[in-house]
Amino acid sequence: MDIRLKWFYRLGFILLLFIVFYIFMKLKPMWGPVLSVMLVVLLPFIIGAFISYLLHPVVEALHQKGVKRGLSVIIIYLLFFGGLGVGIYKGIPTMMNQVEELSENVPVVMEQYKMWMRNLEYQTSNWPIDVHERIESGMDVLAIRMNTFLNHLMNYAMKALDFLVLIGLIPFIAFYMLKDFESLKKMIWYITPKKWRKQGRAFLRDVDTSLGGYIRGQLFVCVAIGVAATLLFWLFDMKYPLLLGVIIGITNVIPYFGPIFGAVPAIIIAATLSIKMVITVAIIVLVLQFLEGNVLSPLIVGKSLHMHPLFIMLALLAGGEIGGIIGMIVSIPILAILKVFVLHARVHFRKKEPLVDK
């Protein structure tokens, strides 16, 4: 076939894909509600599968030391969900109280900032009037956005109670998935077409090698940093220590930009107390980030992704543009899966020797 004709076929195929996608999006009012219901129903299974995936290596390590598999599952299961349950039982009410208190004190915080801005305006009276007006309007916008964010946080927490039954299923789903992990693997093996089995297993193995260690290590580091930040804020009498510690722990999962996002709320609140507290909080954040970047991450996470920082930054920016903070969190795992997919697709389309299953 002529090369130009091949390109016409390829362009026609791409154009057809765009048309199909456009029609599919136009039909969203029809399939959107069905997809929402499916997501709600499948969410406990997705979370349960994720928890099982995280705990499975620990269960296997315990099993290889001579502990029966069933007993290994029960031990790890009770330790994980027991600790998680105690943390939720003790921490959620405290955190909600701190969120509510912070929401009520936002006007006081903003009034403090306005007083500082008036002092700054007095000291910079020779600056253009437009600059002062923009600073004032910026503070008003910041106050509105802080109130909106805190209200959304409270609303999401209340909505979570509506799905209490579904959330309560997660521990049971995770338990059975852990217990029957090998049986589930065999079931997936047998329902997969024979011609895809070896390459599919090799693909999943490479994804697990690239992604598994990163996710488990990163979660451990984030929990450690969040707990350490909470304790240090509490020891130094910083306001809302649990809330700020949770924010620092969650945002720490985002490479490069996460520490900045996590430090900003703590610095802003510390600034309403005293300059000494600002310096204290800044030192705490810097010390934690030094330990995370030079001790914890290299030791626990390592270089499991094997990707250049430029690609990671590009993925973070794209994820942030598409899905905000959540998009930045999931962008790195998606990038790792895409990397493995591209490597396997290149082997497949070049018709090289199939990957040998170890």
From TrEMBL:
Membrane disposition: Multi-pass membrane protein
Name of one Pfam family that matches: AI-2E_transport
InterPro entries: AI-2E-like
Record keywords: Membrane, Transmembrane, Transmembrane helix
Transmembrane helix keyword on record: yes
Transmembrane segments: 7-25, 37-59, 71-92, 156-178, 219-236, 242-261, 268-291, 311-342
Biological process according to GO: transmembrane transport
Any Gene Ontology CC annotation: membrane
Main subcellular location: membrane
Localization: Membrane
Family: Belongs to the autoinducer-2 exporter (AI-2E) (TC 2.A.86) family.
Record's protein name: AI-2E family transporter
Lineage of origin: Bacteria, Bacillati, Bacillota, Bacilli, Bacillales
